[in-house]
Write a structure and sequence with these properties.
7% of the residues lie in helices and 42% in strands. The chain is mainly beta and 543 residues long. Bound molecules: 2-acetamido-2-deoxy-beta-D-glucopyranose (6 copies). Keywords: Signal.
């Protein structure tokens, strides 16, 4: 009996068998291509370098060296990995050679449901070198534990051109007037319906810090203060990249070696050490596929790094999340680790200092039994009073229903996994959860189901899994049903203010919304643009 059960689970744990992931549309990929639906097997090809497809016979697609060339591909199924997002890249090599030159690079995006089709385009200048048979390779490396990279290739011939200079790739800086006008009109309506602070605010109870990153300046990130009057104020600059900047940086320097060691700040893993009000993140050096984190403590008053620390006894598994525990002054980490065919173990770890001496030492505290289905890490939040950790995990095999569970871990005396609670996602879906001490409940911003009508602040009972509407925030005509706006420590525990970033329907501009959990009031910021600001954290203003 037990054996057959494991077999059933093993079949379920391999959704990849029915799901497709990346197709190369232009120049057209080898073999069949059907992008009419998500999960097409023609977009599901594993195995370097070409997903097991042999080269085409006969004529190849003609391209010109030294000239702008249009590349288009489709992500046919999304495997965004919170805390360690993957990437897609395009490269070229002579047929039979393994020396791939990087042409384009895109970070993975956080979308609502995995069965999501999104086209990407890039305009690249091909090396101006004749090539009778070259291969353009598209790759999707998702970093999802247990998921291998996806590959597609197309066979091309490159003709050398006589143009002296490669043309510069221009980005389009034209303002989108029509879209912008619509957005402003809607914002005026929203502001007239709700509280509007007078800008600039002299002394707000809290503010949002984040890290601003530009792929056009991949060598540095700025610590920024994003204020309610719509400004993004740089506080300090750091000489490392962000997220997957390793590859962006290789492109910029024309050093086409994707494995060169360049440090970058890890995306989506950040916390506040509330005793000092400072920010904690991780710097990774070296190969993006092989994490080697360094603990970073930012002094936000000086906008500088107070110290860096190696991680002693690191077990080699990327951290998906980190929180600071006010009770013992240690940090708690969460990682998802493959356990052969059985699924994944969830591991709660601790980072602590011994005898006031760096480095931070990692120790494993709790390891769950292998889980085959609820393996998509979403968010972690801490109940400081009860010394409990809540982790939101999504079900890998329900890309539309977004089934989810909360795992509760007890950090008192005897570290243990307490229980797992299935959430009611029949009406509301969400990607992050935040514990509020006053009510003992979790809160989340929800666009309902996909194509819902309303953005709602929902209350989640962590013991029963019940999810109920708490406050209706805005009609969907204003904001996109988009999951990227979560903020670390999003609730100000003193005032009950919940912070979230929404994206306008008509343009990709953003609005910070503050919903008061107790008073039911809603406050909108001015229009701002936070699409380049990552790792947003709420900081209490006790300067
Ligand atoms: C590729 O070619 C090899 C040998 O020529 C053949 O065995 C294999 O079946 C081919 N693969 C595909 C996908 O056509
Ligand atoms: C992607 O582009 C193709 C044409 O190249 C188009 O037929 C398809 O509708 C597009 N899909 C999406 C999701 O935009
Ligand atoms: C961020 O801006 C707010 C004003 O909105 C200000 O009160 C706060 O001190 C600023 N924080 C830092 C670290 O500069
Ligand atoms: C890294 O790049 C160098 C070339 O600069 C190459 O010799 C080496 O094999 C590469 N290492 C890996 C792990 O790909
Ligand atoms: C895999 O899970 C089994 C329990 O089913 C456990 O005994 C074993 O330690 C786990 N392996 C790892 C590497 O965690
Ligand atoms: C926001 O900034 C990004 C680049 O950081 C840019 O691509 C986008 O067009 C901007 N959006 C608006 C509405 O200004």
């Amino acid at each position: 009996m037990a054996v057959s059960l494991i077999k059933v689970i093993m079949v379920l744990v391999l959704p990849s068998l029915v799901a497709g992931h990346l197709c190369l549309i232009h120049p057209r990929q080898r073999g069949d291509m059907d992008i009419s639906r998500a999960g097409s097997d023609t977009c599901f090809r594993h195995g370097a370098p070409c997903g097991g497809q042999n080269a085409s016979i006969g004529s190849y697609i003609l391209l010109f060296g030294g000239e702008q060339t249009f590349i288009k591909w489709q992500q046919n199924f999304n495997h965004y990995t919170v805390g360690y997002p993957g990437y897609m890249d395009i490269a070229i090599a002579e047929y039979g050679s393994d020396s791939w030159q990087l042409l384009a690079f895109n970070r993975d995006e956080y979308v609502h449901a995995q069965d999501h089709q999104q086209n990407y385009t890039a305009i690249v200048v091909l090396p101006n070198k004749a090539c009778d048979h070259c291969v353009i390779r598209a790759r999707y490396v998702s970093h999802k534990p247990g998921e291998q990279p996806f590959y597609q290739c197309s066979d091309v011939a490159v003709q050398q051109t006589v143009s002296a200079l490669p043309r510069v790739i221009e980005t389009n800086h034209q303002p989108k007037h029509e879209e912008f006008r619509n957005a402003m009109k809607k914002m005026q309506t929203l502001h007239s319906k709700h509280d509007t602070p007078t800008f600039p605010e002299k002394n707000p109870p809290a503010f949002l810090l984040g890290f601003s990153y530009s792929p056009f300046d991949p060598n540095s990130v700025y610590l920024v203060n994003t204020t309610m009057d719509g400004q993004v104020i740089p506080l300090g600059q750091f000489d490392f990249g962000h997220g997957m900047s390793v590859q962006d940086r290789c492109m910029k320097t024309r050093n086409m070696v994707p494995n060169t060691t360049y440090p970058f700040l890890l995306d989506s893993v950040m916390t506040v050490e509330t005793s000092s009000n400072d920010l904690i993140g991780f710097l990774h050096e070296g190969n993006t596929d092989n994490p080697s984190p360094t603990f970073l403590h930012f002094d936000i008053h000086q906008a500088s790094i107070l110290f860096k620390s190696a991680i002693g006894e690191f077990d080699g598994h990327a951290f998906s999340g980190i929180v600071y525990n006010e009770n013992d002054g240690h940090f708690y980490t969460f990682s998802v680790q493959r356990n052969e065919s059985k699924g994944f173990n969830f591991v709660v770890g601790q980072l602590h200092i011994e005898k006031n001496m760096l480095p931070y030492i990692y120790s494993e505290l709790i390891r769950t039994e292998p889980e085959p289905l609820y393996v998509n890490y979403q968010w972690m939040t801490m109940d400081q009073k009860g010394n409990r950790l809540f982790v939101l995990m999504g079900n890998e095999n329900t890309p539309d229903q977004l089934k989810a569970r909360i795992y509760i871990f007890d950090l008192n005396y005897v570290w243990k996994f307490l229980k797992m609670v299935e959430l009611d996602v029949s009406e509301y879906t969400f990607m992050s959860i935040h514990y509020y001490e006053k009510t003992g409940m979790l809160y989340a911003m929800s666009p309902g189901k996909w194509n819902g009508r309303l953005w709602t602040l929902v209350e989640i009972n962590p013991l029963t899994g019940d999810v109920v509407e708490h406050i209706d925030v805005a009609d969907m005509e204003y904001f996109k049903p988009h999951y990227g706006g979560s903020i670390f420590n999003a609730i100000n525990q003193e005032t009950g203010d919940f912070y979230h970033v929404l994206t306008l329907q008509d343009t990709n501009a953003n609005i910070i919304v503050i919903v008061n959990i107790d008073g039911y009031s809603i406050t909108y910021s001015e229009i701002t643009n936070l699409s380049h600001v990552h790792n947003l954290v709420l900081i209490k203003n006790n300067f």
